[in-house]
Amino acid sequence: MTFDLTLSGSDLLLLAPEIFLTIWLCVVLVIDFSIKNIDHENLAYLSFGGILATLVNLIWFDYVGVHGSLFKNMFVLDGVAIFFKIIVLLATALVLLSSIDYVKTFRFFRGEYYFLVMMSALGMMFMASAQDLLSVFVTLEFSTFGFYVLVAYLREDARSSEAGLKFFILGVFAAGLLAYGISLVYGETGTLVFSEMANTPGSYGLAIGFILIFAALGFKIGAVPFHSWIPDTYQGAPTPVTAFLSIAPKGAALAILIRMFYVGLATFKPMWVLLFVVASIMSMTYGNIVAIAQKNIKRLLAYSGIAQIGNVMIGLAAGTKRGSDAILFYLLTYLFANLGAFAVVIGVSNLIKSDEIEDYNGLNRRSPFLAAAMLLFLLSLAGVPPLAGFIGKLYIFVAAIEQELYTLLIVGLINIIISLYYYLIVVKKMYINEPADPTPLTVSAPLKTAIYIGVVGTLILGIYPKPFINWAASTTLMFSNMVSSTAATPAVSYTHLTLPTNREV
What we know:
- The chain is mostly helical.
- It has a domain at 305-478.
- 72% of the residues lie in helices and 2% in strands.
- It has helices at 9-14, 16-34, 40-64, 79-103, 110-128, 133-151, 158-189, 204-221, 230-236, 239-245, 248-264, 269-291, 297-318, 321-352, 363-366, 368-382, 388-402, 406-431, 445-463, 466-475, 482-485, and strands at residues 68-70, 75-77, 492-494, 497-499.
- The strands form two sheets. The protein has a two-stranded antiparallel sheet with strand order 1-2. The chain has a two-stranded antiparallel sheet with strand order 3-4.
């Protein structure tokens, strides 16, 4: 395979967001090294400004329809890539705002923290545009390097060091699985590009290769049984890093999963549907049941995140355009609710120096704003109307019903009830229990801004979701003919599960 690395002006335009963000994060690092007495809060705002400018650039790209591919289709800029890049940048911006007060507690390397956050975001932006398996491997590892350092950033905290070590070991193991899976797929197909795999005949080697790749990406999104790193990592890592891990890498990895299965493996749909059905049921059930017993709010949100990924995989199991639309919209709702909840956790943790659920007793009396915001976010995560989470879950379930995935629907509804139970445990402690210390709690303006953004996003997506649903639907137009491409594949039936292949999207 040969590559023409000569880039025209139009080619550079496709890379403009990544080029700009690369230059910006280098500027942040140079300023931090050059100016000894710089206020690190100013570095945070400088980093936030760069992320915001890149976000505006991508929104403009989406508005005018800037699309294209580079490097023999290894890098692609289309609606799906732009959507997931916007998700990553929104998450990064909210994390930067939420980090300002938290970073003040660091004794060293405050400027490097912002650099690493932006570098990880840059890697995930490249992940969203990865159109072949080689790009997937390189970009995934590039984005993960920053997280290896960020998770273990609290050098004097044994839990942070332990979390970083566990994350690194399991991350390297996942990288090994990914590399081996890629080698098997390339050996069977002779190509690494997803679009060129569509007509490849099936084989055991190809199946094993894609299962290994799915396992590696399952580690990234935290799906059962590849979730073992999540609880300890979420608890031990700095809370803003935990918030970042909870959404941004999942979005980038989901972009790869959608491309790989919807494009590269479209003709094998009846086979991989079962994979997602099993993974979805396991993730939802395990995450919600184990969350009930948690005493630490970060571990509770960790298991909640595992369950939420189970909901997302319902859309993947549907295997239709509506399923992909539902995934994108669901991820958007999850972003505001989950990052908003973590912003509240950051605010409480900064003030009372504890992440235990028991210490949330009487939070309403100490800070009505934080308690009300946390209530809103938890109810949205549970799927209570009229909040964003309800619309997201409804959209996911509609996609499942259209494909007659009734088993997933029933399991999903049962798990909503379970999740509502442990979310309400936190609510009870905030509003009914008496506080051990009645001292009022106040949060800084940047953190309050991040929480307000989460509240507004959660309410708007729940009350008026139509523009955002339309945006998701327009983003995935490339999958409109997916069902027709699989029409020749015989339907496969499982117990309590029928997967028709001739259904209109």
